[in-house]
Amino acid sequence: MTSTPFGVRLRRAMDEHGPLCVGVDPHRALVESWGLPYDASGLERFARSCVEAFAGEVAVVKPQSAFFEVFGSRGLAVLERLLADLREAGTLTILDAKRGDIGSTMDAYAAAYVGPDAPSPGDALTVNPYLGYGALRSTVELARSTGRGVFVLALTSNPEGANVQHAVGERGTVAASMVAGAAADNAAAAAEGRLGDVGLVVGATVGSAVRDLGLDLLAANAPILAPGYGSQGAGAADVAVVFGDAAGNVLANSSRGVLRHGPDVAALRAAARRDAEELALALRR
Ligand SMILES: O=c1ccn([C@@H]2O[C@H](COP(=O)(O)O)[C@@H](O)[C@H]2O)c(=O)[nH]1
């Protein structure tokens, strides 16, 4: 819990380290390629190497909850420790758990992940707005009250997402309604001249969709988490083209693209630095 808003802390971190978020996605193949057993003990050593490699070195680390949940309570304990170690090192985290439900259930998810007594808090949480942007209200409010943020899925990096996210409803496309929701929630921050705390997830792989759907990402004053850079095929130049005038608010994520350089900690760190520099050059504001 902190009194400095998430958007302010994220902007500082990106200015200092470049616009890269490293994902901690312990896929079975990766864990085994690091010479580790694919069990809770291997997971723990994998996570520890990530802390050693990335703490204090990159703007943000994004653990993917699914790969920890696989191991039940022992996996969740590793996730909690990973988040705590990064927090202690002063490195921002986004917990990628993509929570989304009716409002009353979201209250519990909000308490679990962004509340003052959250057992495994990150600095921000990814949320799924498929039950409607309004269902995220309590999560947005609680996150802001603890200096945390949320990232709302808007245009995801997978090809199947377009079928839902490009669909046209009463007030335009589904994606546009998410951007409008974030813009409204970030308006007060914009008036203060700072980046908002309600981020959007927009894949670096979406091609011309941001333009085609007329999404004004810059006006949303939202941090933009852009997965798809690296293993999913988007390069830094693609990120610059996809986001245009909003490129300065983009935090590109790479998980496997960096992690494949492990288990050597120096090699992991060097890979992250190369990507952060490449992105900073391409997205220069
Ligand atoms: O639209 C989305 C939203 C989230 N993700 C997540 O990001 C990482 C990407 O991993 P890579 O290894 O860099 O492909 C992963 O955790 C996804 O669940 C996404 O890819 N697209």
Keyword list:
alpha/beta; two-stranded antiparallel ribbon; globular; single chain; EC 4.1.1.23; 14 helices; eight-stranded parallel beta barrel; TIM Barrel; 285 residues; binds the ligand O=c1ccn([C@@H]2O[C@H](COP(=O)(O)O)[C@@H](O)[C@H]2O)c(=O)[nH]1; lyase
Question: Would you kindly provide a written description of the structure presented here, covering whatever features stand out?
Answer:
- With 285 residues, this protein is α/β, with parallel strands linked by helices.
- The chain has a single domain, classed as Alpha-Beta Barrel (TIM Barrel), CATH 3.20.20.70.
- It contains 14 helices and ten strands.
- The protein has an eight-stranded parallel barrel, surrounded by eight helices. The chain has a two-stranded antiparallel sheet with strand order 6-7.
- Helix 3 crosses helix 14.
- The chain starts with 5 loop residues before the first helix and ends with a helix.
- The model has no long low-confidence stretch (mean pLDDT 97).
- Ligand LLZGTKA7 is lined by residues 23, 25, 64, 96, 156-157, 201, 203, 227, 230-232, 253-257.
- The active site is at residue 98.
- One of its GO terms (biological process) is 'de novo' pyrimidine nucleobase biosynthetic process.
- It comes from Nostocoides japonicum T1-X7.
CATH class: Alpha Beta
CATH superfamily: Aldolase class I
- Sheet with the most strands? 8 strands, parallel, barrel
Question: What would the CATH topology be?
Answer: TIM Barrel
In CATH, the architecture is Alpha-Beta Barrel
Question: What strand order characterises the main sheet?
Answer: 1-2-3-4-5-8-9-10
Order of helices and strands: HEHHEHHEHEHEHEEHHEHEHEHH
